[in-house]
Amino acid sequence: MSELHSFVVNEEDDGTRLDVFLQGVCDLSRSRLQRLIGDDAVRVDDVRQKSSYRVHLSERVDVDIPEAVPLRALAQDLPLSILHEDADVLVIDKAAGMTVHPAHGSPDGTLVNALLHHCHDLSGVNGVLRPGIVHRLDRETTGLLMVAKNDHAHRHLAAQLEARTVERRYLALLWGGVLEPGVVDAALDRNRKDRLKMAVVTRGGRRAVTRVQPLEEMAGFLTWVEFRLETGRTHQIRVHAEHMGHPVFGDPVYSGRTWVNGIEPELRPAAQILLKSLKRQALHAATLGFVHPRTEETVRFVSELPTDLAQTVAAARALPRQ
Predict the structure, then answer these.
(1) Averaged over 50-59, what is the pLDDT?
(2) So what's the pLDDT on residue 69?
């Protein structure tokens, strides 16, 4: 079985590449869309076209999307850093490079695979691919995650997230040396040009609120910052940081590796050295606090900086201020 989706090109998208146009209207990656185009599953006014074809106003684009093959997460013996465990809840200190749950691009080697090996059973509220997962961290973001071991715990923790009572504090190294404390209240939605990215939008989207507290300026071009999440949207801190004009240092998606080209020439050599020392975004989920779903007591956990980020911050502190 497959599903046929049809879209009409509007004035805004006139002249856009076919694959880019489809990224803006389909919740699929560009590589997946290009495969569909190559497999003759996409037609423009009933005519097969290449990915590079430029669509025109009022053309109809049909996409025949095959039914996805169901995936099921399998238990795998993988390294797992556990800060706390009881009958209801796990608190994990996630390492960089680990995806939280399986997807078509990463069917194994995820946190869920490791959890299933450790626990054998988790809450089923989020389905077979996301058992126990109440909230997420990006693949290259390190730090604290709470995991529900049963459905009661899952619903209790999810309700706290919905009520915005969970304490989630992140530490990040941002580009830019002048940053004021404040609140970013800017809705997020999928980027129309790249469905793998998020973007700040003025209409529609989902409300996203991030509190910003600068802690320390370093080397004249970096600031060590604490973020506190009130909502938990995909890529929220990373997108809000870029929106502020202070991308997360090292972020390969949201300007964190290209921002170096815009700083003062005399600062670039030191910045380039720091970038080479950190292969990911400088973002760490450092503090997690919530009400325990069984005891009703408030619990709070703190994660130390991982080695790569701690070394980068120390190197930045050692640089002379410009």
Answers:
(1) 94
(2) 52
- Range 169-286+307-318 classified under CATH 3.30.2350.10: yes
Could you tell me the residue ranges of all domains in the chain?
Answer: 2-66, 82-163, 169-286+307-318
What Rg value do the Cα atoms of the chain yield, rounded?
22
User: What tokens appear for 23 in the block?
Assistant: 């990224």
Active site residues: 138
Q: Is 171 a residue whose pLDDT tops 80?
A: yes
Lowest mean pLDDT: which of 83-92, 122-131, 266-275, 310-319? 122-131
pTM above 0.85, yes or no: no
- Dig out the tokens for 146 from the structure: 């709470």
In a 13 Å sphere around the CA of 206, the CA atoms on its Cβ side amount to 11
Given CATH 3.10.290.10, say whether it is the number of domain 2-66. yes
Kindly report the backbone phi and psi dihedral angles of residue 291, in degrees, each rounded to the nearest multiple of 5, phi listed first.
Answer: -90, 125
- Alpha-carbon distance 14 to 23, whole Å? 14
Rounded (10°) CA dihedral 293, 295, 297, 298: -30
In this predicted structure, the answer to whether residue 128 has a pLDDT above a threshold of 70 is: no
Structure-token match 């994660």, residue found: 303
CATH code linked to domain 82-163: 3.30.2350.10
Element (H, E) at 117: helix 111-119
Distance (Å, whole) CA 94 – CA 109: 13
Nearest-angstrom CA–CA distance, 200 and 316: 30
Q: What is the dihedral of CA 107, 111, 115, 117, to 10 degrees?
A: 50
Long-range contacts for 207-213 (Cβ within 8 Å, ≥24 apart)?
A: 207/231, 208/184, 208/233, 208/236, 208/239, 208/240, 209/183, 209/184, 209/185, 210/183, 210/184, 210/236, 210/237, 210/240, 211/182, 211/183, 212/179, 212/181, 212/182, 212/183, 212/184, 212/244, 213/181
